[in-house]
Design a protein that fits this description.
The complex is a heterodimer of chains A (105) and B (243). Chain A has 105 residues and is an all-alpha fold. Chain A has two domains: 34 residues; 66 residues, no CATH class. Chain A is built from five helices and no strands. Chain B has 243 residues and is mainly α. Chain B has two domains: 154 residues, no CATH class; 64 residues. Chain B contains twelve helices and no strands. The chains are: A mainly alpha (105), B mainly alpha (243). Chains A and B meet through α1, α2, α3, α4 and α5 of A and α3, α4, α5, α6 and α8 of B.
């Protein structure tokens, strides 16, 4: 029962965050300064999701070390800049990780 | 309000992003299946009630550790507050969309659906915008709910040593790179990423992301504004020179 209540209220709250501007704020003309900042939502948020996950995914999350994940992520970033193709990013990033883990980095 | 070619484009744009989803969904499903304090039906229901992987995982983990219900709800909301930024960024794109869409559409506004629609051109017709978005969102909704269900029912089929969890940050790295269109964008990603790493242990979970992203966006907006007024000055200059 407790978990149902948590998921229902969390679900309503999450919908409100998603609907905030699209549903409830549709009548508002967003100020220029805000529109300028909103152009950079994608690079800013995706970097803030990706980088901590890359850095802390290894054996010891408290220490930032050059481990297999960090090297694989760096190579995958290079592939992303070069190809702009996410399938390649995933394929080469995962393969690099497996090879590095196999040789014991 | 239906554009078939937009629907096909929507699926095509989403396909590469969908590759890590089943693995993440499986991990979450296994977690729900193994948790003593969250029953399977409620755990699965979190997938269509909340519909956000990272926040669901955090809530299930917290509930299993005996955390309070209020803390679990607040943690989900902190992690999912980034959707306010997605909603604001897409607001101009959907301002003139039909009312039903503006209320139903946001239900499926996940990271990947935002990424594909945000990357589209402003020249798209409204029918294109709505069809492209809805098809991506509904496909993602089905994929996610089925993946979590599979994890609950089938259990641990993919060994953790295969490190498939790494596919999720890889996908976000790729999305980040694809979103780098100009110099302020690169600055936004760099500042936001570094601050998010430094603030990764900030409570509640998800607040480091928020602080990082807001700092990155602010600096990028200032830089963008300076670059633009700078180029205005330059054109003024050349006009004067012409005279």
């Amino acid at each position: 029962m407790k978990s149902w209540l948590v998921f229902i209220f969390a679900g309503i709250g999450t919908y409100l965050t998603r609907a905030s501007f699209i549903a409830f704020g549709a009548g508002v003309e967003l100020p220029t300064w805000l529109q300028r900042a909103l152009k950079y939502v994608a690079p800013a948020v995706f970097a803030a999701i990706a980088l901590p996950a890359v850095v802390t995914g290894g054996a010891n999350p408290d220490v930032i070390a050059v481990d297999a994940r960090l090297v694989a992520a760096a190579i995958a970033t290079g592939v992303a800049m070069w190809t702009k193709n996410l399938t390649w990013v995933l394929a080469i990033g995962m393969s690099t990780l497996w090879v590095l883990q196999w040789i014991g980095l | 309000m239906w554009d078939r070619s937009a629907a096909i484009d929507g699926i095509r744009a989403l396909l590469p992003l969908a590759l890590p989803a089943p693995f993440f969904g499986l991990v979450l499903g296994v977690q729900i299946g193994e948790s003593p304090l969250v029953d399977n039906t409620a755990g699965w229901a979190s997938s269509w009630l909340i519909f956000g992987g990272a926040s669901q995982l955090a809530a299930v983990t917290l509930l299993n550790a005996g955390g309070s219900a209020v803390l679990a709800v607040l943690t989900v909301l902190a992690i999912n507050s980034r959707h306010i930024m997605y909603s604001a960024a897409l607001q101009p794109r959907f301002r003139d969309a039909p009312l039903w869409f503006r209320y139903i559409g946001p239900y499926v506004l996940v990271d990947q659906v935002f990424a594909t629609s945000d990357a589209r051109s402003d020249d798209d017709s409204m029918a294109y915008r709505v069809s492209f978005y809805l098809v991506s969102g509904v496909c993602w909704f089905l994929l996610w709910n089925l993946s979590v269900l599979a994890g609950i029912l089938v259990g641990n089929v993919v060994p953790a040593s295969w490190s498939f969890d790494f596919a999720v940050p890889l996908m976000f790295l790729g999305l980040m790179v694809n979103a780098l269109k100009d110099r302020p964008g690169i600055v936004a990603a760099a500042i936001s990423g570094v601050i998010a790493v430094m603030a990764r242990d900030l409570e509640p979970a998800g607040s480091g992301l928020l602080v990082g992203a807001l700092c990155g966006m602010t600096v990028a907006a200032l830089l963008d504004w300076r670059l633009e007024s700078g180029s205005d000055e330059q054109t003024d200059h050349s006009l004067k020179n012409d005279r």
